């Protein structure tokens, strides 16, 4: 029986070790990528006392007030299956993203854009996809590249290229430090974009010149910003985000006009929700990648050791007892002698000088009652 139990324990231990090795090799990579059934998400950032351009029925004005920007990400599982073919199949997924900027006081829309793009499921970077589009009123192609809306799974302490929608290209975001946000460990990155001229449609540039510098013959829009990303490294998800854009119309004659000067930051509610979502996802990945394999590995080794012990004890011969002239099996038993006759094994009662046991003759044995 002990041998059977030992063999079962040893086999169970081997099975545990196989699973422990397989989890980080095969299961962890599968959970460290964007799932096809990913639900929609929403993030809200606000800017207090911002300066911004507002288009009204009466014309263009520069206003001052509080702004709220809302970004909604809607993963498209059906479009992913229908549109992503070839190298993109199973490696990327389609996202639709919508952003609106509104005044907080009267909820009037100041700006908006929508886009559809392909995101690499592991790296979180934009995948090259000919059908990607970005509608923000400029008429310029999207030209997506670099990180867009998230960082890679297993984000490293290094610089990453992050896409800038105004410039239509990716610029580096530098790793700065490790810190905690609402109990979640994050990597802080900073993207510094110095003053750079934007590509503006001729009719839009003409409208700006007519409103702010009618005496000018031409002008340009200068753009700069500083972005800060607080990223949970296991998942690559944003926990917090800050954007400080500035746009200025500079005519060839006359004074310049600030069109946008704001400091957007995730609201406390968005940070709380983002930290919980990222923290929970990181724990799930950590269980598959580290803790489950470690526990199964320990249990597997213990089961194998116990199995060997049970097998060895199950195969040990019956315990023997020592006598003055040798060893005989412990306790009375009936057995067949070497000559085939049955005999009762009786412990010796005396020995001669040589130590050989003397058996009583049949006449000397007391009669049975």
What does this structure look like?
- The chain has four helices and 17 strands.
- 26% of the residues lie in helices and 38% in strands.
- Helix 1 (2-31) packs antiparallel against helix 4.
- Strand 9 and strand 10 (237-243) form a beta hairpin.
- It is α+β, with helices and mostly antiparallel strands and 369 residues long.
- The model is unreliable at 319-325 and 333-369 (pLDDT under 50).
SSE layout:
Blueprint: H1 2-31, E1 41-56, E2 59-76, H2 77-83, E3 92-103, E4 109-120, E5 133-135, E6 160-164, E7 169-181, E8 184-197, H3 202-212, E9 219-232, E10 237-243, E11 246-251, E12 257-261, E13 264-266, H4 268-314, E14 320-323, E15 326-329, E16 334-336, E17 342-344
Antiparallel strand pairs: 1-2, 1-12, 1-13, 2-3, 3-4, 4-5, 6-7, 7-8, 8-9, 9-10, 9-11, 10-13, 11-12, 14-15, 16-17
Basic shape: elongated
- Helix count equals 4
Count of extended strands: 17
Query: pLDDT under 50 segments (min length 5)?
Result: 319-325, 333-369
The largest β sheet comes out as: 6 strands, antiparallel, barrel
> Per DSSP, what share of the residues sits in E-state strands of 2 or more residues?
35-45%
The Rg value, from CA coordinates, equals 40 Å
Strand order, main sheet: write it out. 1-12-11-9-10-13
Structural class: alpha+beta
Cα(first) to Cα(last) distance is: 42 Å
SSE ordering: HEEHEEEEEEHEEEEEHEEEE
Mean pLDDT: 81
Helix content range:
25-40%
């Amino acid at each position: 029986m002990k041998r059977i139990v030992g063999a079962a324990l040893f086999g169970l231990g081997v099975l545990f070790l196989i699973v422990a090795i397989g989890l980080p090799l095969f299961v962890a990579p599968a959970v460290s990528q964007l799932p096809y059934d990913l639900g929609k998400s929403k993030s809200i950032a606000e800017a207090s006392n911002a300066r911004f351009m507002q288009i009204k029925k009466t014309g263009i004005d520069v206003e001052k007030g509080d702004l709220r920007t809302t970004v909604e990400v809607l993963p498209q599982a059906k479009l992913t299956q229908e549109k992503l073919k070839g190298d993109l199949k199973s490696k990327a997924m389609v996202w639709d993203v919508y952003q609106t900027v509104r005044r907080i006081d009267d909820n009037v829309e100041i700006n908006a854009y929508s886009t559809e793009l392909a995101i690499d499921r592991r790296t979180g970077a934009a995948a090259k996809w000919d059908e990607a589009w970005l509608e923000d009123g400029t008429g310029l192609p999207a030209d997506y590249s670099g990180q867009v809306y998230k960082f890679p799974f297993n984000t490293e302490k290094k610089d990453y290229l992050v896409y800038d929608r105004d410039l239509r290209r990716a610029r580096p975001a530098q790793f700065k430090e490790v810190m905690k946000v609402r109990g979640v460990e994050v990597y802080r990155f900073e993207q510094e974009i110095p003053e750079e001229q934007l590509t503006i449609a001729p009719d839009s540039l003409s409208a700006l010149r007519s409103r702010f510098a009618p005496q000018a013959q031409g002008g340009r829009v200068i753009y700069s910003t500083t972005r800060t990303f607080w990223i949970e490294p296991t998942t690559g998800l944003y926990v917090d985000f800050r954007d400080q854009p500035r746009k200025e119309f500079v005519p060839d004659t006359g004074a310049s006009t600030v069109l946008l000067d704001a400091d957007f930051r995730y609201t406390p509610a968005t940070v709380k929700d983002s930290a919980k979502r990222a923290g929970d996802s990181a724990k799930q990945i950590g269980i598959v990648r580290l803790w489950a394999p470690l526990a199964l590995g320990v249990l597997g080794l213990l089961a194998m050791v116990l199995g060997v012990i049970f097998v060895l004890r199950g195969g040990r011969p019956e315990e023997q007892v020592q006598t003055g002239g040798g060893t005989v099996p412990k306790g009375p038993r009936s057995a067949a002698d070497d000559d085939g006759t049955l005999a009762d094994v009786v412990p010796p009662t005396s020995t001669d000088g040589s130590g050989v046991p003397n058996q009583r003759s049949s006449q000397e044995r007391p009669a049975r009652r």
